[in-house]
Amino acid sequence: MKKLGLFILPLGLFMLIAVFLYQGLYSNPRERQSMVLDNPVPDFSLPDLMAPQTTYTPDVFNGQVTLLNVWGVWCVTCAVELPYLTSLREQGVRIVGLYYDQDLDPDFGDKTLSEVQQEVTDMLSDLGNPYQFNIYDVYRDLSLDLGVTGAPETFLIDHNGVVRVHHIGDLNSRVWRSKFAPMYQQLSSDIQVGMP
């Protein structure tokens, strides 16, 4: 009986590990269930990146369908998606930036606010500015509450301030068509017919 137990225990452990690794082998790392989907944007009170005297709260999402794009000048993929996001804004899509700052972290640097603002201005001048405004997530509190793991990430927020889509990675034409456009059009139609 003891010998059978010594055989079954390692076999069972091996099977558990094999199942775990098998699932990981075929899973998409960009597809994970977001905890904020179908929930209101978490509460926040954060300044405007370019005009810190202006403060934003979740009320900025009320009444309009909005893309909230998490980005930073240090993010190479963010730079790649800026021209496409700018084209969406030119088509009437409301886009708000959530500036995900690394420069307050001593491991990354210690830039002043004016230096960060200049870098943002330079980058948006070169690559296009899709943002109506940028919320400055100084200590990454809102990013953490949204479950952000990096940049870029984009959230589609309905006119009631509820998160409807969460995408990790760059937003490009393929992702827009397959993941965002149908929900965006439905939500925009709901506003036009006066649905709550």
Fold topology:
Blueprint: H1 2-25, E1 46-47, E2 55-56, E3 66-71, H2 76-90, E4 94-100, H3 113-127, E5 134-137, H4 141-146, E6 153-157, E7 163-168, H5 173-192
Parallel strand pairs: 3-4, 4-5
Antiparallel strand pairs: 1-2, 3-6, 6-7
Range of helix content:
40-55%
How would you classify the quaternary structure? single chain
Largest sheet: 5 strands, mixed
Head-to-tail CA distance between termini: 66 Å
CATH H level: which superfamily?
A: Glutaredoxin
Number of domains: 1
How confident is the prediction overall: mean pLDDT?
87
Structure summary, number of beta strands:
7
Q: Which descriptors apply to this entry?
A:
about 200 residues; about 15% strand; two-stranded antiparallel sheet; Glutaredoxin; 7 strands; alpha/beta
Verbal overview:
This protein is of the alpha/beta class. It is built from five helices and seven strands. It has one domain: 3-Layer(aba) Sandwich (Glutaredoxin), CATH 3.40.30. The longest helix is centred in the first third of the chain and has 24 residues. It is globular. The chain starts with a helix and ends with a helix.
